[in-house]
Amino acid sequence: MKRLIRKMVLTAVAALTLAGTSYALDYDYSGHLPNHNDTLTYSFTTNGTSTVTLFSSSWDDGNFDPMLGLWDSNGDLIQFQDDGNEIGTTFSNGVAYGYREWDSYFTEVLNAGTYFVTLSTFFNNHAGNNLSDGFVYDNEVPIPITQWDQPFNRIRGDYYEFHILGVEEARDVNNPVPEPVNNPVPEPSTIILLGAGLAGLGLARRRSKKLA
Q1: Rounded to two decimals, what is the model's pTM?
Q2: CB 64 within 8 A of CB 33
């Protein structure tokens, strides 16, 4: 019986080890966008079919109206959104982030691969359906956001805050080092494997008691 229990322990450990690469991670980014025609670009990867959520959470604090874009590994447009028209709170890395209707908020089911996220100001839309086409304000003279009369929003702050939820890893394309993440959320496969291992340990323990 000791051999059986030992085998179940090893099985549970192996399950956790194999599942260790299946964590869905959340990434939070914030800072100040200097000019009205600046854009930020980030990349992220998924190891399998994943439900990925992108949202901003800075408009309601008196800052500029943000827009988020999602692009595939070839730079082709998947989703581009100004307003999510949602009001609520979403947790990321244990922190509750509030968002309002003028923040971007959307979810996509994505296959394994590499993707790009862009953040720009309203009304700095994509100039075409590929990331290489740039944005409509690219050739304008930069205006500091804190001095810019943004369409429909007037003069607001230059702070941004947005989030990428449920991915393998994410990074600033200008920074080759992935961002640190505090609280990985186990994928369902990880939870199932862990549950199976613990259930096996419980069964082995009950059998041991009966034989005793």
Answers
A1: 0.77
A2: yes
CATH of domain 25-172: 2.60.120.380
pLDDT tens string, the chain, 212 residues long: the values are 545 444 443 444 444 344 444 579 999 999 999 999 999 999 999 999 999 999 999 999 999 999 999 999 999 999 999 999 999 999 999 999 999 999 999 999 999 999 999 999 999 999 999 999 999 999 999 999 999 999 988 999 999 999 999 999 999 998 766 666 555 555 454 444 445 444 444 544 444 444 45
Which amino acid, one-letter code, is at 99?
Answer: Y
Rounded-to-integer distance, Cα 2 and Cα 170, Å: 44
Give domain limits for the chain.
1-19+188-210, 25-172
